[in-house]
Design brief:
heterodimer; A: 286 residues; Protocatechuate 4,5-dioxygenase, Chain B; B: 115 residues; mainly alpha; Protocatechuate 4,5-dioxygenase, Chain A; 8 helices; 68% helix
Chain lengths: 286, 115
């Protein structure tokens, strides 16, 4: 069985990639955000995952409205980033793990969860930025990846409850598998922000704090919300919280080791969270 | 600037909006590629015609009217690529939509974090 080491939630706004490209991590504007990552990097250096399963949302790089899967999983040997149209640097190709992807697909479909499978899949900043934040000195990151995209564009969106259940199914598929890979689960998105309309610029630190408080010990408290409730509470891009809920769903007995919150970065509340799976022998790693 | 309540432009991009906005969003999706951004910027009207945008969509493009683009079915994830082609970042777009200066928009972001 694969060993799930833990889960990480992180923001992914494109401005982070711009700050990295310009070497501005220690600038007065950015330092309070980047300060959230060294403890997570130390934990990763100690636990050494082989694979990162990344729940994220595509922002119109790979998926268009002509064909918009609710949940899509990559099953490729490698994943390319590409020009996203607004000028962030294109990252190096990322290594996939098709064997593990298919193991997850088999397990999740057997649990009545219907995924779209992709043997080619461009991954956008929502995949590349977390890897850059977590392994800043590696290019590409020293893990193979399994990207799982959650539709955050075309309504109706999957409910937070359904995204959590997807994570549970992925976690079970990993634990029931035959290989012995060490896996970290990443949720990429959020926290509160809204880019469009007269409500542009909305962020809600109070709700973000509630989410961070509940994720490790009482995620069920967050599953009562609909996707539209999340828009109300966290802004229309705040629905990216669903990627964190999917990540949390894959864990069984998480122990929060670290959290960090800094708002705003760009138009968004920046956050990171590290939870170690207590079943893993690595729980008290910090 | 309202910070609570569900707004008509709150971001619920449903089937009706997706159908109305399809040509516009398709154009925006094409702007992932540098050569298409150049074609667009060289002759925006011609590029809009190539994608069969509606008159309302073309007018909103011409006017750099982000709220108008949303009203015409644009989705912000795709519109962001048009904004990028115009050299606008998300603070610029936020300021345009809320009718304030970029500095005032940034101050609004900070004020919520501090409250």
């Amino acid at each position: 069985m694969a060993q799930i080491l833990g889960g990480i939630g992180t923001s992914h706004v494109p401005a982070i990639a711009r700050a990295v490209a310009r070497g501005e991590q220690m600038s007065p504007y950015w330092k309070p955000f980047f300060d959230g990552y060294p403890p997570i990097r130390r934990w990763l250096a100690e636990t050494k995952p082989d694979v990162a399963v990344i729940f994220y949302n595509d922002h119109g790089l790979n998926f268009f409205l002509n064909c918009m899967p609710t949940f899509a999983i990559g099953a490729a040997e490698r994943y390319l980033h590409a020009d996203e149209g607004w000028g962030i640097p294109v990252s190096a190709p990322l290594r996939g793990d098709p064997q593990l992807s298919w193991q997850i697909i088999e397990g999740v479909l057997a649990a009545d969860f219907d995924l779209t499978t992709c043997q080619e899949m461009l991954v956008d900043h929502a995949v590349t930025i977390p890897l850059d934040l977590l392994w800043p000195h590696a290019n590409p990151a020293p893990v193979r990846i399994v990207p799982i995209a959650i539709n955050s564009i075309q309504h109706p969106l999957p409910s937070p409850n359904r995204c959590f259940a997807l994570g549970q199914a992925v976690g079970a598929a990993l634990r029931n598998g035959l290989d012995d890979r060490k896996v970290v689960i990443i949720g990429s998105g959020g926290l509160s922000h809204q880019l469009e309309g007269s409500r542009a610029g909305f962020i809600n630190p109070k709700f973000d704090k509630l989410c961070l408080d509940k994720l490790s010990t009482d995620p069920e408290a967050l599953l009562k919300y609909s996707a539209v409730d999340l828009i109300e509470l966290a802004g229309s891009q705040g629905v990216e919280l669903c990627t964190w809920l999917a990540m949390r769903g894959a864990l069984q007995h998480p122990l929060e080791l670290h959290r960090h919150y800094h708002a705003p970065i760009s138009n968004t509340a920046g956050a990171s969270l590290l939870m170690a799976e207590a079943a893993a022998s690595h729980a008290p790693a910090l | 600037m309202p910070v609570t309540g569900t707004h008509p432009d709150s971001g619920v991009f449903d089937g009706d909006k997706a159908a109305k906005g399809y040509p516009l969003n398709r154009l925006c999706f094409s702007l992932n590629e540098q050569k298409n951004r150049e074609l667009f910027l060289n002759n925006e009207d011609l590029y809009c015609d190539t994608f069969a945008l509606s008159d309302a969509q073309k007018a909103a493009v011409r006017a750099r009217d982000v709220l108008g683009l949303l009203e015409a079915g644009g989705n912000i994830y795709y519109l962001a690529k048009m904004a990028g082609a115009w050299g606008l970042n998300v603070q610029d777009v936020g300021a345009l939509q809320t009718g304030v200066s970029v500095e005032a928009f940034k101050a609004f972001l900070l004020s919520q974090a501090e409250s």
